Each structure stands twice: as structure tokens, then as C-alpha cells.
From TrEMBL:
This is VENT1 protein. Residues 1-23 have a biased composition (Low complexity). It comes from Phainopepla nitens (Phainopepla). GO terms for molecular function: DNA binding; DNA-binding transcription factor activity, RNA polymerase II-specific. The keyword Chloroplast does not apply.
Length: 88
């Protein structure tokens, strides 16, 4: 039942993807893409509709409630703001 939101984010466990970064076989590897569940995306979207920017406290609470890292929440909101900007 996991669904991808289309947003790239850091993985919760800090795991790295097996493929090498574009530009050769040597170099930094990209983190695995986070597959957010539909419930997580729904909650994130509802929160985004109320407020476009989260403070540290709100981010911490939301991360705990959704069982995601604060970095994943921060990245999701950054990407969502950019999506909104492109739509406008």
C-alpha cells in the first residue's frame, strides 16, 4: 500500500542506493527515494494547506506522528513549495 509522492527525500535509515551517481562508476551514491504512504501524503498535504512553512516544533511533532525523519518532512515541504511555485 506504499505510494510514492514523487518527492525525493532522505531515507529513514540512512541507507544508500546501490546504483552509482550519474557521471561514472565512481563518486557519491544517491540516497534511496522515500516511498510515502497515501496516509502520510494526505496528512502532509493537509498540513501544507494550513501553513506553507513549518517551525522546528511543528516539524518534530509531524515527523513523530508520521514516523518519518525531520529531514524527510523538511525536504517534502521544500519540494511541495517548489511544485506550488511551478504551478503558479
Amino acid at each position: 500500500a506504499d505510494e510514492s509522492s514523487g518527492y525525493e527525500s532522505e531515507s529513514a535509515g540512512g541507507e544508500r542506493a546501490g546504483s552509482a551517481a550519474a557521471g561514472g562508476s565512481r563518486g557519491r551514491q544517491r540516497r534511496a527515494r522515500t516511498a510515502f504512504t497515501s496516509e502520510q501524503v494526505c496528512r502532509l498535504e493537509k498540513t501544507f494547506q494550513r501553513q506553507k512553512y513549518l517551525g522546528a516544533t511543528e516539524r518534530r511533532k509531524l515527523a513523530a506522528a508520521l514516523q518519518l525523519s525531520e529531514i524527510q518532512i523538511k525536504t517534502w515541504f521544500q519540494n511541495r513549495r517548489m511544485k506550488l511555485k511551478r504551478q503558479i
